[in-house]
Amino acid sequence: MSSTPLNVGIVGTGIFARDDHLPAYQKNSEHFNVVAVFNRTRSKALDFAKLANVPEDKVYSTLDDIMSDPHVDYIDALLPVQYNVQTLQKAIEYNKPMIMEKPIAATMEQAREFVELTDKTDLPIAIAENWLNLSIVYEAKKHIQRIGKIVGFTHTFTGPNSKTGKYKATSWRQHAENLGGSLSDGGVHQIAILTDLLGDFESVSAFTTKVDTNDQMPDAFFASIKLKSGAVGNYTYGTRFGATKKSISMKIYGQEGSVLLQLNNRDAPVIRVNIGDCKENAKEEEVYTINQDDTYGIAGEMLNFYEAVTKKNKNIIRANPRTAFHHLACIDAMLKSSDDNGNNVKVETI
Ligand SMILES: NC(=O)c1ccc[n+]([C@@H]2O[C@H](COP(=O)([O-])OP(=O)(O)OC[C@H]3O[C@@H](n4cnc5c(N)ncnc54)[C@H](OP(=O)(O)O)[C@@H]3O)[C@@H](O)[C@H]2O)c1
């Protein structure tokens, strides 16, 4: 069945817009057509426009100009997240649906304001949390149902520091205004898949540490977590360690078995399922290699937003503002717990 493409206006033509969102739109040209751009530095907008085949008269010089273009069906904003709330206010003023990058905001105060603003409008507004659309997450859900009551989990995302990483060099990351810096910039992805699979956090006890002395703030978490379901577990996150192999895994323990997600191989993650209530009753391990699409969930998030915009239904957005609020609130609670010598902190709700 053919579909009518939506016309997309890109706000913020930095690394992620150029290397990830634009290619994902171009691969899905039956659904999307990038028609306009705006960037603070115009020369970068012009370079992006060439790649996207956007004519120069659609390279705008202000946010108001791109927002008021009647030909633009929705805005995709990829900015440092301290600008999310003010960009959202413009989108509401111009009645434009918008998808914007994670985390939802730079502070909890801004995150609350974001949710309150989106509660008052029927416009589809999404947070671009692509990890919620990873194929392994959908597959894992089927197996988690097979292992009985979930009692606990261990979740690890650790990796070596890099001196040359393309993201680390960006000035807004080096002088981070978003709470926790890299701990929320990258850490919300892990919270997103953890909570999507096992449900919301209730409270946390955590310690942070600073590995890279050049970092402004702590760059690794070691946390114990209690979920609203009653299950408990550990979450370890840090990408600034000394030489170590990247390790991304989540093991979920049930009374009738366990499910292990191994995400080290980005293109072919693996799920291992062990069924049985004890060693003696254990069935042979099941191993599934998952085909991950090469946009790493971005195409899925865009198609979900396409549906919300075309059906004018904000309620079908997977990464909606309330969900993204919870992801940031979990990071905030971990930071507060660490500041309070690891004492247990309840995760803020809205
Ligand atoms: N989902 C993911 O896996 C993922 C991965 C990477 C990044 N991201 C997100 O994508 C967004 C952009 O990140 P990036 O890595 O692409 O960073 P980037 O290359 O530094 O791009 C940032 C963009 O924001 C613009 N900008 C910066 N300060 C601004 C201001 N005061 N007013 C208006 N525009 C401003 C920059 O414009 P100039 O050209 O003028 O500097 C640039 O276009 C961030 O929210 C980040 O969290 C998500």
Helix content: 25-40%
Strand segment count: 15
The major pleated sheet works out as: 9 strands, mixed
Tally of distinct domains: 2
Mean pLDDT: 96
Pfam families: GFO_IDH_MocA, GFO_IDH_MocA_C
GO molecular function, one term: oxidoreductase activity
Domain Gfo/Idh/MocA-like oxidoreductase C-terminal: 142-345
Domain Gfo/Idh/MocA-like oxidoreductase N-terminal: 6-123
Describe the fold and architecture.
The chain has 350 residues and is an alpha/beta fold. It is built from eleven helices and 15 strands. Helix 4 (84-93) runs parallel beside helix 5 and helix 5 (108-119) packs antiparallel against helix 11. It has helices spanning 15-27, 42-52, 63-67, 84-93, 108-119, 135-144, 171-174, 182-185, 187-198, 298-310, 321-339; strands at residues 6-11, 32-38, 59-60, 74-77, 98-101, 125-128, 150-160, 201-209, 220-227, 232-241, 247-254, 257-262, 270-275, 286-289, 345-346. The chain is globular, with a radius of gyration of 21 Å. Helices cover 32% and strands 26% of the residues. The structure holds NADP nicotinamide-adenine-dinucleotide phosphate (NAP). The site of NADP nicotinamide-adenine-dinucleotide phosphate (NAP) has 23 residues, from helix 1. One of its GO terms (molecular function) is nucleotide binding.
Features:
single chain; 350 residues; alpha/beta; Rossmann fold; Dihydrodipicolinate Reductase, domain 2; 2 domains; 9-stranded mixed beta sheet; 6-stranded parallel beta sheet; 11 helices; globular; binds NADP nicotinamide-adenine-dinucleotide phosphate; Gfo/Idh/MocA-like_OxRdtase_N
